[in-house]
Amino acid sequence: MTLPLVPYPLSVTEHDAPAFRLDDGVGITGDDTCAEQLRRALATVTAGTLGHGEGIRLEIIAGGPAESATIEVSSAGVVVTGADAAGLFYGVHTLVQLVRRDTEGWSIPAVSISDRPRFSYRGVMLDVARHFFDVETVCGWIDRAAALKVNHLHLHLSDDQGWRIALASRPGLTEKAAATAIGPDDGGHYTADDYAHIVAHAASRHMTVVPELDMPGHTHAVGLAYPEVVEHPVITDEVRAAAEEFGGGLPRTGVPYRGLAVGFSSLRISDPETDRFVRDVFTDLAALTPGPYLHLGGDEALGTDPARFASFIARATEIITGLGKTPIAWHEAGAAAGLAAGTIGQYWGFVTPTDGMDATARRFVAGGGSLILSPSDAVYLDMKPEPEFPLGLTWANGHTSVRRAYTWEPSSVIEGIAEEDILGVEAPLWTETARTAADIDALAFPRLAAAAEAAWSPATDTCTERTWESFRTRVGAQGPRWRAQGIHFHASEEIPWA
Description:
Blueprint: E1 11-14, E2 20-22, E3 27-30, H1 32-46, E4 55-60, E5 69-74, E6 77-82, H2 85-98, E7 100-102, E8 105-108, E9 111-115, E10 121-127, H3 135-146, E11 152-156, E12 158-159, E13 162-163, H4 172-176, H5 192-204, E14 208-215, H6 220-225, H7 237-246, H8 272-288, E15 293-297, H9 306-322, E16 326-330, E17 344-347, H10 357-366, E18 371-373, H11 376-379, H12 402-406, E19 422-429, H13 437-444, H14 447-456, H15 468-476, H16 479-484
């Protein structure tokens, strides 16, 4: 029987031996932090509490690969060992997935597991600009993703609809550009303390926050506060069509934008005041962000002259590297000849590239960087999972079923890119149609599990369990646990839910 593990570990051996029984006499010893996390997780799954004895041992033994873990289960006890704190944390989450109920109560089958990640970067993105989400919701998103061994949270903090983080050098951004969102909803923003709380909560789950300030496009909101650095909107047939289909009207200079159209806004490139603005906001953001990455966007600058776009990307990546951070940009930025060395590209084209998207992505690698893969027709969580689903969009080759989210292989997306050139996989969740935490859950689950497996587990041609039939069974077994954790997942008919 396939064990209900998602993402699937590197090596699993089941033993023909008695299981370990979880009864009132069992206790957890070892690493205090992970022990408390395991107690809470087991209490949620089993609706009970453990005793104060022994039986489950958690320990860190340095020397193995980063984030790696081993699990040994026999009728006599359980030992989870991590090569570091992150490895032990992930090992604990694997152990929780093994817990099952039989006629005698709760137990853990006798197994030996050795595990480590395929890619070092395993990400999710939450767009808090189209619709704003409070700190509690973001922290809940962190908890859900971390349980699937995701270790980076990409926060999309600015867009045409609003600016979401307070920065000391530019107070007008939150005073004048943060109040609105798509449609009738209110906006909002994070104070420095709010952001610090999110960063600390993520770190406690071994997750790095990657903040994004999108530019030079997606900057209409900036003009509400600092009109001198923003061009007038460029109204195209595509912008008019989006306004006709989704509402929100056409963007107008100095007026908050509540629609869904993209590509009409741009910073005023080559203006000295714009250069000062870019330096100010990234300097402040770098000071607030302990992680190594700052994301500068760089996508869908459709109304921006290509030569001026290239000069902007070269300057912005130079500013970020000068702050001691590594720039990340969407793959369109690869068109810039002056891209700072080591800049990381994030590919959001299709699983089968079109329109030269693969060529621009390869330029990041040629410049000493690497790639994060986010193929929109596989891991964009904001796509509809089914044609009639009430949430989501369909521009990425129609709806994205769970099967389509799972049956792709990262090493096969961009020709000429070696395994070592791929930093990892990220599943973005844009929020044009997501307004609540329950909406986020419904769009993300179970497809987030598919993306997490692509990021963590062995390649599809090296592991017998990396198949659609195995995955749909394993993810179906997560249903009771997700319900117990309060996750409002979409019970897709593709999955045989337990």
